[in-house]
Design the sequence.
């Protein structure tokens, strides 16, 4: 019987790269956003926001990062999954921290979720693009 499993998480440098990648892309889009990064255990390890982004976007960015890590999938896929199982929607969304909105991506290395990034403030399409840019800045290919 196995009693441990390997676990990996993001380095400080990786967290900073994710934050900068998302912010730089948001600046190119001229969008004011918040960016949250969670480690592999869904603990907030990086957070930054624009001076003018609405405060609610801070919480939403954290929820997107949390959902991406805890569900081990992009929040867009989580949103699509919930649309297919409307009876279970309340169960998932009733759990504190989950959100069904585009803009959160897990950070996956060798099949292992090592963190997540969430972006909010630019609209779901722009948030998703900023989250993808964060992964690209880290040298990863977003799904």
Sequence:
């Amino acid at each position: 019987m196995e009693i441990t499993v390997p676990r990996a998480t993001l380095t400080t440098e990786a967290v900073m790269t994710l934050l900068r990648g998302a912010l730089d892309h948001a600046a190119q889009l001229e969008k004011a956003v918040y960016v949250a990064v969670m480690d592999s255990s869904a603990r907030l390890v990086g957070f930054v926001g624009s001076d003018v982004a609405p405060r609610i976007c801070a919480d939403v960015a954290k929820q997107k990062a949390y959902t991406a890590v805890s569900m081990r999938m992009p929040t867009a896929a989580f949103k699509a999954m919930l649309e297919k199982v409307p009876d279970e929607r309340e169960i998932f969304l009733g759990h504190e921290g989950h959100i069904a909105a585009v803009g959160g991506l897990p950070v996956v290395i060798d099949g292992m979720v090592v963190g997540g990034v969430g972006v909010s403030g630019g609209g779901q399409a722009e948030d998703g693009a900023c989250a993808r840019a964060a992964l690209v800045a880290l040298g990863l290919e977003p799904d």
